[in-house]
């Protein structure tokens, strides 16, 4: 499949009063056509910074690119001027944010907010943009669009606002949609609806999706491939099946172990990962997870491992995969029951 | 909406009633009277004058008579300017104050909002620091000192603007600037901090993610949301301009209402004190109502009354 987006060795740092925070350190991934890539990780792992770097929405300064490349359809985005980026944002690459309560302008009708990018990117007249806005509202499943289009965001419910956001993001049929925790602020039933909607629209408008989340349940439901981020690095990547059924990195084990399993043994306790993520103002020399890893060895503290290729699609950066390391079996808690496979 | 306006109007009448009552009592408590001066007036004449203006009646009669007149927007005759009613004085001098006030409010709003917005957009750069130094100076220098300084430089030294009086547009520039500076500085600081808040909000990120350029994001998305605190300040701003104008009108020798107000207090001109107070209060109440109506125009989330729905 064709690569839409190629991120190579991306480094994004922030200058703060205290020190330089190395939020993203050497992240590489590809995004193929019509594919959903989930980027998973806890708060502060660099997933949002990575995604906002693709749109070049990181305020610079204090942020800065410290090397690497982001290629969209073969074109380098890092070298593009602000003017050139304006033509890409909203047209080629769109974004949905986490909190639908705050990500719509409260003083502008939803219809106008949808129309804006249509008028900007597709040279539509106001009337045309309104007509397309009605279609989009219909498409994202907002009932009675004729009335809703002239309403303000506060007249929408949370789920409807996120649908409105999706309508804005998809207005110009973008090649890439970045969804930064699109369901985190919504309750579970609405979550499922929004994920269904995104999957449905992916087929209709042929969009590739980068789904940022910390919820593995969402990943299992919506993604084709997964990249697990920790401490500003991708530590393991693979297809959804590989990550769920053959995880190799202890951090991935920890993530899977901390996920509740409705159909599993109810006596099973949730496993938390002890400790806190590393301070990226002073990043560890070796593997960022070494300090919290129950299997950490001497080498982990001082040397970051290279990626071990486990298959064409799965890569993992862990010294345990080195042939000289002791053989370690993933813990029982990281084993995923059969229920999740059925959902795929 | 109609019901809301009627309610608001009712509460304005009640407020005015209390203002009239309290001013009346305070004025009676103050020593001295309108006819007290350094030269002793013969007691018979003073007696006659008191009789003429109804000052010999019992207090409650005076009070009720006054209330009756005020209800008909009649503030009675002036004690000092013989043959003139308070209404004449207000009608004659208010246009000067109104012109000066409007010019100052316009200056304060436009320059203040502009300074605040560019300071926020160029946050932590020399532009920001310069704007904020101007703002701090504007807040800390009292307007009568600024007025004197302006007169000295622009009228005396450079000779480009008239030093006082109020005959042409050129005459209005110095007093309007002197009056506008403090509120302008305050608005600039208010605008800067609320603009910084708004620029960090998620919907600004959404707007940028649509590919809109900085100018459109600022004017179409940020400004309308950020201007709310400034709108709230408009009510008190009207007061600041009006009370500030007492001093400025004296310095620039403008025959405005502010000057009349100050003079009436030293003259113990009871009816003029009462009349101007009531007039200013009514003006203030109306301007607060206008600000509240303006809110609903700017922010669709704010609705009239308790219905909460559409109105």
Automatic annotation (TrEMBL), chain A:
Q: Which family does it belong to?
A: Belongs to the ABC transporter superfamily.
Specify the superkingdom.
Bacteria
Q: Which SUPFAM superfamilies match?
A: P-loop containing nucleoside triphosphate hydrolases
Q: Which GO terms describe its molecular function?
A: ATP binding; ATP hydrolysis activity
Question: Record's CDD domains?
Answer: ABC_NikE_OppD_transporters (cd03257)
The UniProt regions of compositional bias labelled Basic and acidic residues, in chain numbering, are: 322-332
GO terms under biological process: peptide transport
> Is Thylakoid there in the keyword field?
no
Any one GO cellular component localisation term in the record: plasma membrane
Q: Which NCBIfam families match?
A: oligo_HPY
User: ABC transporter domain: which residues?
Assistant: 7-256
Membrane topology type, per the record? Peripheral membrane protein
Establish whether keyword Heme is in the entry. Answer: no
From the UniProt entry, list the residue stretches annotated as the region Disordered: 322-344
UniProt name for this protein: ABC transporter ATP-binding protein
What InterPro entries does this protein's entry cite?
AAA+_ATPase, ABC_Ni/Peptide_Import, ABC_transporter-like_ATP-bd, Oligopep_ABC_C, P-loop_NTPase
Where does the record say this protein resides? Cell membrane
Q: Gene3D superfamilies given for it?
A: P-loop containing nucleotide triphosphate hydrolases
UniProtKB/TrEMBL annotation, chain B:
Q: Where are the transmembrane segments?
A: 12-30, 96-121, 133-154, 169-188, 230-252, 272-298
Where would you find this protein in the cell?
A: Cell membrane
Which SUPFAM superfamilies does the entry mention?
Answer: MetI-like
Give all residue intervals belonging to the ABC transmembrane type-1 domain: 94-295
Q: Which PROSITE patterns match?
A: ABC_TM1
UniProt-listed InterPro entries: BPD_transp_1_N, MetI-like, MetI-like_sf
Provide the alphabetized UniProt keywords: Cell membrane, Membrane, Transmembrane, Transmembrane helix, Transport
Could you tell me which CDD domains the record lists for this protein? TM_PBP2 (cd06261)
The record gives the membrane topology as: Multi-pass membrane protein
One Pfam family from the record: BPD_transp_1_N
Q: Can you supply one Gene Ontology CC term for this chain's record?
A: plasma membrane
Q: Which GO terms describe its biological process?
A: transmembrane transport
* Family according to the record: Belongs to the binding-protein-dependent transport system permease family.
Write down the PANTHER family for this protein, in alphabetical order. INNER MEMBRANE ABC TRANSPORTER, OLIGOPEPTIDE TRANSPORT SYSTEM PERMEASE PROTEIN OPPB
- The protein's name: ABC transporter permease
* Protein's organism: Filobacillus milosensis
